[in-house]
Write a structure and sequence with these properties.
8 helices; two-stranded antiparallel ribbon; about 150 residues
Length: about 150
Amino acid sequence: MTTVTVHDLAKRVVEAVAPAELPSFALVAAPYLDHPARAERAFRRSHDDPLGFGLGDAVEMITPVVALVSGSVITALSDGVGEAVKNGAGKVFRKLVKRRAVEAPVQEWSADELARVRATALVRAKALGVEERRAEALADAIVVALLLERDDPR
């Protein structure tokens, strides 16, 4: 079974929404992919900086947000896999659920599943301080990236 990782999804989305950030993707995304909870705390603290540094500067570079949103999407998709395990789906799914924040199976997504993915991405991006229009574009890019991953796993 083919899977999509948070790293792969985030990179594909950055490629679509901010290709100029690709050369620095590995360096910038690493803390958000390796230690998302810690990196998000630091990200949020930088937004509360009373000197005015933070949100405007951080949101200019979308890679950190993409990494965090991609992690939320993969976790949500993996939670769906968890439901399949409860319903007797087997060993492969159990392995995926153990690493749920890392990857999810690539599959044929229903329109309802894709709508839930988009909604998850949109809510998460807005919660991270992304303005509405940019959050919508990011959510759309996440859905497209999942479809591309399904049709053309790299």
